[in-house]
Amino acid sequence: MKSREYAFAKRALKLLDAVGKTDWGVRVVAEIPEPPSRETCRDCGSQAKTLGLCWPKGKILFLSSAQMRDDARTRETIYHEVAHAMTPGDAHGLAFEAALARVRKLDASDE
Ligand SMILES: [Zn+2]
Fold first, then answer.
1. Domain with 30 in it: what CATH number?
2. Where are the beta strands (DSSP E) in the chain?
3. pTM, entire model
4. What would the pLDDT profile of 12-57 be if each residue is shown by its tens digit?
5. How far is the CA of 98 from the centre of ligand 1 (A)?
6. Which pLDDT does position 88 carry in this prediction?
7. Distances (CA, A) of 95 to 13, 35, 55, 61
C-alpha cells in the first residue's frame, strides 16, 4: 500500500474506533468489489459506490485506491462510509445524516 493510501486507511480506522466500531477493518483496493450481499451501501449513487463501500456483515469499509486523487473527496467518502457503519439499515435517512455530521465534526476536531 502506498503511504497516502495507508494514511487514509489509518484515518478511517481511527474514525471507526472513535464511534465505537473497534472491531471493523478497512481495506484499500484497486477496484471496489461487487457487494457480497445486499447488506451494503447499495443506495449510494454511482460515484459513492466507486469510491467506497460499507459492508456491515463483514465489518469492513472498502476504499478505492484508484479514486484517491482528491484528498477532500476521499475524506468525504470515508465519512460517508463510516456513517453507514454507524447506521445499518438507514440507507441515507435522517440517522445517517446525523451520523455523517458527527463523523465530520470528529475528524475536524482531530486536525
Ligand atoms: Zn451511501
1. 3.30.2010.10
2. 25-29, 52-55, 60-64
3. 0.87
4. 999 999 999 999 999 999 887 776 544 456 445 454 456 888 888 8
5. 13
6. 87
7. 21, 22, 18, 19
What are the residues whose beta carbons fall under 8 Å from the beta carbon of 2, sequence distance 6 or more? 65
Tally the domains of the chain: 1
CA of 96 to the centre of ligand 1 (A): 9
Q: How far apart are CA 22 and CA 59, in angstroms?
A: 10
Nearest to 83 by CA among 97, 67, 62, 64: 97
| Digit-coded pLDDT (tens) for 83-98 | 999 998 888 899 999 9
**Centre of ligand 1 from the C-alpha of residue 70, in Å:** 19
CA of 97 to the centre of ligand 1 (A): 10
Domain membership of residue 33 as a residue range: 3-109
